[in-house]
Amino acid sequence: MIKILSKSIREYKKYAILAPIFVILEVIFEVLIPFIMSIMLDKGISLGNNKLVIEIGILMLVMAVLSLICGILSGKFASIASAGFAKNLRHDLYEKIQTYSFKNIDDFSTASLVTRMTTDVTNVQLSFQMIIRIVVRAPFMLIFAFIMAMIINWQIGLIFLIAIPFLGVTLFVLMSRSFKPFSKLFKQYDVINRDVEENLIGIRTVKSFVKEKDEYNKFANDSSILKNFASKAEQVLAWNMPIVQFTVYACLIALAYLGASNIIKGYNVSGKTLFMTTGELTSYFSYVMQILMSLMMISNIFVMITMSLTSARRIVEVLQVSPDITNPNNPIYDVKNGDIDFEKVNFKYNLNAQMFNLNDINVHIKSGMVVGIIGGTGSGKSSFVQLIPRLYDTTIGNVKVGGEDVRNYDIETLRNSVAYVLQKNILFTGTIRDNLKWGKEDATDEDLIRVTKQASAYDFIMDFPGGFDYDLGQGGVNVSGGQKQRLCIARALLKNPKILILDDSTSAVDTKTDANIRSSLRETAPDVTKIIISQRVSSVEDVDLILVFDDGKIIAQGKHDELIEICPIYKEIAELQTKGSDNEGGSTDEENK
Ligand SMILES: Nc1ncnc2c1ncn2[C@@H]1O[C@H](COP(=O)(O)OP(=O)(O)OP(=O)(O)O)[C@@H](O)[C@H]1O
Ligand SMILES: [Mg+2]
Question: What is the pLDDT of residue 561?
Answer without folding.
Answer: 92
